[in-house]
Description:
A hairpin with a 2-residue loop joins strand 26 (450-457) and strand 27. This protein starts with a helix and ends with a strand. Strands 1-2-3-6-5-4 form a six-stranded antiparallel barrel. It is built from twelve helices and 27 strands. The longest helix has 22 residues, at 2-23. Helices cover 22% and strands 35% of the residues.
Amino acid sequence: MLSVLRILVLAAFVVPAYSQAGALPDFTELVEAQHPTVVNISTTRQRDAVALPPGMDMPELENTPFGDLLKKFLEEQRGGSGAGPGERPSSQGSGFIISSDGYVLTNNHVVEGADKVIVRLSDRRQMEAEVIGTDKRSDVAVLKVDATGLPVVDIGSSAALKVGEWVLAIGSPFGFDFSVTAGIVSAKGRSLPNENYTPFIQTDVAINPGNSGGPLFNLAGEVVGVNSQIYSRSGGFMGLSFAIPIDVAMDVADQLRTTGQVSRGWLGVVIQEVTRDLAESFGMATASGALVSQILPDSPAAKSELRVGDVIVAFNGMPVATSSSLPPLVGRVRAGSDADVDVMRDGERETVVVNIGELPQVAELAARSGRSAAGRDDKLGLTAVEPDEAQREASGIESGGVLVEEVKSNSAAAQAGIASGDFIMQLNGQAVEDLASYRDITQSLSAGESVAVLVQRGSGPMFLALRLPE
């Protein structure tokens, strides 16, 4: 009797385990059907030919102890067996075929600066590709190879993708062709530094260098994203992978194929997050939306009824939960179109109609907003800008200081605890009066030096210790 009870207890634990295992997806058919649509991409760049010292040539050195050593050195300088004379290998990545006549989608950073792009298919055919167009803001590039009858991916909808849904990636991590990894969607609509116009899909799919530009599939075998970035402290996979939504990528690709450039909608406002205290002061029940802290001159917003202090809570009927969710919504609207912008103003909800403009280049944007780009990615690893009056008023700072707009991950500033939205008031014992004085102080700092930084944030002034990289 005791033995029977033991068997029943054991079965109670084993059966659920098998049931759970049976519920896991089987990716084999998906991979078999879709892996021919994925390609490996390698690039080369031209370099100056490596010349031997005067009076020396290979025949004279062939029978000396230095012959093999010199030959190996020259091969390495020429890029080994993969690149020809005067060329060096640059990068490897992935891509996928979006049309049977040879159009391929990948990341801009995979092919940026390349003199030659080589596409290798799953059947081992290898051919040189033409770069049709690239878009740095979305990190999308379109290539074309001279071939027909190619297998084509099925394009899905990233808008229909749900958090928790299974997804699968096929790519060439570290040059290992057509590797398959799977995971789930961790989050949607992620905003990353310098990528305000792309609402990234976050997954826990194992993505490593070489996966960039490869497809992210749903269980139906449809592409829902383009694998683009990872967050890592080591350079390898750490469970945080980001993909460009396929809806965004295909819109960019279509524009690149038809016009060779990408047009994005532009509102012309500087926005910030709505804190709990700010929400209360604006008569809002919850801290949400995008607070307009500046309206740029000669912009679509300046020609509308939008005001500084408005909290944008919806755009063309789509809710704006955070400030980072607004730019992608605006970017998808064609220039010249009217958009309904719902704002909270004086405790009441109003709708303002704005005729959307075309997003200017980065340098022009900086000039319009009166912000210098000279402080970008400085030796501290942050972007510092001159704050406007609204930003000073919101922070209670009458004069002095510079506003931290962005902090580069893994930088000296990030490790010290400096965050976006901080005001740097003092650096290495010297008062920071404006962007010019901040620039002068940072230029005087030495590599490896440890300095004290006084920042002002919502919780009050705080000193942080920062050590510059060696």
